[in-house]
Design brief:
By secondary structure, the chain is α/β, with parallel strands linked by helices. It contains 14 helices and ten strands. It folds into two domains: 212 residues, Rossmann fold; 92 residues, Rossmann fold (3-Layer(aba) Sandwich). The strands form two sheets. A six-stranded mixed sheet has the order 1-2-10-7-8-9, sandwiched between helices. A four-stranded parallel sheet has the order 5-4-3-6, sandwiched between helices. The protein is globular.
Length: 335
């Protein structure tokens, strides 16, 4: 095993040392989320699965790690002026909470069709919300107008060095708690989580294989890696709403190209089945986006995993009550 103190894996944007530094900033603020296992899941897969429960993180997802790290590194003048971000929900809540804790005003650009639970939570943390039409408007353009018009600092949800470094602390914790992992399976939206996690995981254990998971209707990263250039896909309306950016980031794409071995896809049906299993067998409330890695394992997308030790990041738990009720009341039967 590599010395966890040595920045042996890095990218031009983010180093392992950056992730270690983020961990120090988060030490007394972010939750050190538990690692959960399930005998039922292990028997079904023929593998040992270790779930990093970021659904139990503050604000309900891993996004708090990057959001707090990023705001904490702003100048006093920037903090006073406030920040703007864009998100379908999890990053919105995380940035809003981080801003509240650090005394920084937050404006969030959010789609009108974002889950109601995420809109309510973001407002509850004190953020101002600017709504837009997902299929008709560009959220980044709206955010830039707010930067120019109100002097805010833009903190994007994934394509930022401090965001990536903060997200990587999830894998740093997992790898230091569970030794000898063969695989690390992580959901992909814009790539901030898997980029940070891949750098951290492979610095600690260079042999670990990093696998990403996307919705089958939003596989922009899979297509981009296959073509060797960033590909933009049409806007998806998958229930995995946290994984729906239409292209990987300028910073995250080269990191994923270097460190992510494979990207696989899952359907909404498969994600819902995984949500149900996590709730019924492990007593964990996980949103469809966060359950995508378990869905990929259950569907056999990751290849031969028999006897393997597998780390999984359950990225969030902010699922709408109505959606969760429908998932839990549905009987899944594989053919």
């Amino acid at each position: 095993m590599a010395d966890a103190r040595s920045p042996s894996v890095s990218s031009p944007a983010v180093s392992f040392a950056d992730i270690q530094s983020a961990a120090e900033r988060l030490r007394d603020t972010a939750e050190r989320t538990p690692v959960a296992t399930s005998r039922t899941l292990n028997e079904r897969l023929g593998a040992e699965v270790y779930c990093k429960c970021e659904n139990l993180q503050r604000a309900g997802s891993f996004k708090f790690r990057g959001a707090y790290n990023a705001i904490s590194r702003l100048t006093q003048s920037q903090r006073k002026s406030g920040v703007v971000g864009f998100s379908s929900g999890n990053y919105a809540q995380a940035l809003a909470l981080a801003g509240k804790l650090l005394g920084t005003g937050v404006v969030m650009v959010m789609p009108r069709d974002a889950p109601a639970v995420k809109l309510a939570a973001t407002r509850g943390y004190g953020a101002e919300i600017v709504l837009y039409e997902r299929a008709e408007e560009d959220r980044a353009v709206i955010a830039r107008r707010l930067v120019e018009g109100r002097g805010l600092t833009l903190l994007p949800p994934f394509d930022h060095p401090h965001i990536i470094a903060g997200q990587g602390t999830a894998a740093l914790e997992l790898m230091n708690e569970v030794s000898g992992l063969d695989l690390l399976v992580v959901p992909i939206g814009g790539g901030g989580l898997i980029s940070g996690c891949a750098i951290a995981a492979r610095a600690i254990l260079p042999s670990v294989r990093v696998i990403g998971v996307e919705p089958d209707t939003a596989d922009d990263t899979r297509q981009s890696l296959a073509r060797g250039e960033i590909v933009t896909t049409p806007q998806s309306h998958s229930m995995m709403d946290g994984l729906l950016p239409t292209a990987p980031g300028r910073l995250t794409f080269p990191i994923m190209r270097e460190h992510v071995e494979q990207v696989v896809v899952v359907s909404d049906f498969e994600a819902a089945e995984a949500v149900q299993l996590l709730a019924m067998r492990m007593k964990l409330v996980v949103e469809p986006s966060g359950a995508a890695p378990i869905a990929a394992l259950l569907a056999g997308r990751v290849g031969d995993i028999h006897g393997k030790r597998i780390g999984v990041v359950l990225s969030g738990g902010n699922v709408d009550g109505g959606v969760l009720s429908r998932i839990l009341s549905h009987a899944f039967h594989r053919t």
